[in-house]
Amino acid sequence: MKTAILFVFLALPVAAQDLRGIEVLRDLEYGKGEGTSLKLDLYRPEVSTMQPKPVILYIHGGGWRGGDKRKAAMAADLVRRGFILVSINYRLSGKAKYPAAIDDCRTALQWIREKAPKYQIDTSRIGVLGPSAGGHLSLLLALSLAGEDRVQAVCSWFGPTDFTSGYEKKSNSAAWVFLGGSPSELPEVYREASPATYVSKDDPPVFLIHGDKDTTVDIEQSEILYKKLKEAGVKVDFLRVKNAGHGFRPAGGRPSHSKAEIQEKTFAFFERVLLE
Known about the structure:
The protein contains 8 helices and 8 strands. Strand 1 (about 20-35) and strand 2 (about 35-45) form a beta hairpin. It is an alpha/beta fold. Helix 2 crosses helix 4 (about 135-145). The longest helix is centred in the last third of the chain and has 17 residues, at about 260-275. It is globular, with a radius of gyration of 17 Å.
C-alpha cells in the first residue's frame, strides 16, 4: 500500500468541517499499548436528549504507518444523523507490528462498551467504518469477533481483505512492514490478519465500496470478500465505483459516483442497519 496517496475527502481535517451544535471531546485515553497512551476523539450532539445513541467507530487509513484520528471526514454529518462517532489513533507499523493495531481497535471497542453509560451510547448498535488500512482493520475487527462481542455493522472503503491472495509481493510494501515479514516467512500471520479468514454466517451486515481502477488496493480484494460473504449467507452490499482509483480519485474517466454520493450511500447503510 503506497503511503504517498492523498485521501482527498477521506482525510478531510475535522477543523474544516462545520461543527456547530457538536461537542468534540479530544484525546480521551482508551488504553495503553506497551507504554504508549492510546487516544481517541468522541463527537456527539452538544445538547443531550438523554436517549442512548448508536455509535460509529472510525478507524483511519494511511497504510498502517500513517494517518491520524483527527481526519474523520464524516464526523459532523454522522452526528447530525443521529450517531455518536469515536475516532481512534492506534499504534502504527513503524513502531509496533501486527497485531498491535488490531489489538488497539479491540481495546477501543471495549472502552466504548465500558463508557457507554457516561456518553449515552447504545452498545446494541455499534458500527465500524474505515478507508484503506482502516477498512482492513474495520473488517478484521468486525468479522473476527464472536457472540456478544460482535458489532452490528461494518463499512470498508477500498480495504485489503485477503493477504493470502498475493496482495503484496514487494519486500518494501506497507503490508510487509505491517505484518513483520514476507508471506513465505509468516504464512500463518498473513492468514490470521486477513478478514476473509473469519467469514461466517453470523457476521454483521457489511458494505464494501471500491474503485475499479484502484492500483493501490485492487478491487479484487473487495470481490474476494464479497463472494465469501454471499456464500455464507451474510447480508452484504458492494458498490463498484467505475473510473475511480484509490481514495475514489478519477481514473480513466469520470467516476460513476461522486464523493458526495459515496458518503450518502455510507450514511444510508448505517441508518438502515442501526437506526431503523
